[in-house]
C-alpha cells in the first residue's frame, strides 16, 4: 500500500470509528458537522471505505466509489454474501475462510482477490480490514478499505513472466538450445532421487563428436557451431518424451533416461548413432566416410542410498573414453543394475 492509500485508510478508519462513537454519545451537532467533513474527504479518495456490522453481517456503509470501479450501486451491497458472491470463484473459498478466521480472532488483516464487475469482467482488489471491538473486547464491526490493485498485479505478472523466462534461459545452452550443465545437474539430482525412492533403473549416456578439433580447424568455428546445433537437434529427435538432452561442454552431449534399463538405453544409443550417421554431415578430416560421427559411453544403475550420482557420471565418462580409445564411432556401456 502506498503512502496515499495509508493516509486514506487512517482517515477513513477515524471517520467510521468516530461516526459510531459520536452517535453513541449523542453529540448530534458535532456529529453532523465533523462526520460530514470526514465523509467528504474520505469519498474524494480512491480508497473505497466500508463498514460491516459483525452481529448481522450487513454492510452499514460502503463508499460511492464502488460503483465507479465495479459498476455495482452501493445500495446493492447489503450483506457479506454480496461481497463473497462478487468474488472470483478461484479466490472465494480461500479469501472468505481467511478473512472470517482473522476477524473472529480479532486480527487486522489484508486480502487480495479478483472482484466481479457488473460488466462481467474482474478487477484485482486489496481489502485492508480493521477489527473494531466493544468495551468487553468482543468483535463489534469490521472497518475496511478496498483498493484497486489491477495495475500493480499486471506489473507483478509481467515481472513473474520475465523471471520465468530468465530462469528458463538460465537452464538452456545458448548455442544449441538444449539443456546446459546447470540444468543437467538439476535433472540428474531429481531423477537420481526418484530412482532411489522407487528402486527404478536410471540410465545415462554421454556422446562426444569424433575429431571435432580437426573439424573446427578445417571448416572454421562458425561452421563448427552449426555442426553442434545440428547434432543437438538430431539427439533431441532421437530420444523419447521425458528423456533429457543437454550439452555437457564443448562437443560433448549428455542424455538422462529415467526409468530406463540397460537394454532400452542401448536402443536409444543405437538410434542416436544411426541418426547422426544418416545426417551425413560432411567432415573431410574424419577417417569414417568423411562424415561426422560420435562416440558413446552409457551406464545404467538402480541407485541405492550409498551410491553417489557424481561417481556414476564419472563411470559413464570413463565408458565414453573407452569408446574413443577403441577407435571411435562406437559404444561402450556398463550395467550396474544387473
Automatic annotation (TrEMBL):
Transmembrane segments: none annotated. It comes from the Bacteria. Its EC number is 2.7.7.65. Residues 109-161 form the PAC domain. It is an enzyme of class 2 (transferase). GO terms for cellular component: plasma membrane. It catalyses: 2 GTP = 3',3'-c-di-GMP + 2 diphosphate. GO terms for molecular function: diguanylate cyclase activity. InterPro entries: Diguanylate_Cyclase, GGDEF_dom, Nucleotide_cyclase, PAC, PAS, PAS-assoc_C, PAS-like_dom_sf, PAS_fold_3. Residues 200-336 form the GGDEF domain. GO terms for biological process: cell adhesion involved in single-species biofilm formation; negative regulation of bacterial-type flagellum-dependent cell motility. SMART domains: GGDEF, PAC. Gene3D superfamilies: 3.30.70.270, PAS domain. This is diguanylate cyclase. It comes from Paraburkholderia sediminicola.
Amino acid at each position: 500500500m502506498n503512502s496515499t492509500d495509508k493516509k486514506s485508510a487512517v482517515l477513513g478508519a477515524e471517520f467510521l470509528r468516530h461516526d459510531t462513537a459520536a452517535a453513541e454519545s449523542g453529540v448530534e451537532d458535532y456529529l453532523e458537522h465533523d462526520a460530514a467533513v470526514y465523509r467528504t474527504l474520505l469519498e474524494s479518495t480512491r480508497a473505497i471505505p466500508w463498514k460491516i456490522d459483525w452481529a448481522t453481517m450487513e454492510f452499514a456503509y460502503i463508499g460511492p466509489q464502488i460503483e465507479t470501479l465495479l459498476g455495482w450501486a452501493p445500495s446493492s451491497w447489503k450483506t457479506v454474501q454480496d461481497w463473497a458472491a462478487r468474488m472470483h470463484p478461484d479466490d472465494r473459498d480461500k479469501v472468505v475462510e481467511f478473512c472470517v478466521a482473522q476477524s473472529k480472532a480479532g486480527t487486522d488483516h489484508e486480502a487480495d482477490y479478483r472482484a466481479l464487475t457488473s460488466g462481467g469482467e474482474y478487477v484485482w482488489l486489496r481489502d485492508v480490514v480493521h477489527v473494531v471491538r466493544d468495551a468487553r473486547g468482543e468483535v463489534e464491526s469490521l472497518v475496511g478499505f478496498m483498493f484497486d490493485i489491477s495495475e500493480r498485479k499486471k506489473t507483478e505478472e509481467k515481472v513473474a513472466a520475465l523471471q520465468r523466462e530468465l530462469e528458463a534461459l538460465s537452464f538452456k545452452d545458448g548455442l544449441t538450445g538444449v539443456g546446459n550443465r546447470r540444468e543437467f545437474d538439476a535433472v540428474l539430482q531429481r531423477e537420481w532421487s526418484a530412482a532411489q525412492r522407487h528402486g527404478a533403473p536410471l540410465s545415462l549416456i554421454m556422446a562426444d563428436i569424433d575429431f571435432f578439433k580437426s573439424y573446427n580447424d578445417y571448416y572454421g568455428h562458425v561452421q563448427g557451431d552449426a555442426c553442434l546445433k545440428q547434432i543437438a537437434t538430431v539427439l533431441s529427435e532421437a530420444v523419447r518424451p521425458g528423456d533429457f538432452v543437454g550439452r555437457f561442454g564443448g562437443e560433448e552431449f549428455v542424455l538422462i533416461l529415467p526409468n530406463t534399463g540397460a537394454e532400452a538405453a542401448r536402443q536409444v544409443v543405437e538410434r542416436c548413432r544411426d541418426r547422426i550417421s544418416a545426417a551425413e554431415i560432411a567432415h573431410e578430416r574424419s577417417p569414417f566416410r568423411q562424415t561426422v560421427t560420435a562416440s558413446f559411453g552409457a551406464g545404467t544403475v538402480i541407485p541405492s542410498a550409498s551410491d553417489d550420482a557424481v561417481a556414476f557420471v564419472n563411470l559413464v565418462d570413463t565408458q565414453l573414453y573407452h569408446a574413443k580409445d577403441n577407435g571411435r564411432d562406437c559404444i561402450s556401456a556398463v550395467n550396474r543394475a544387473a
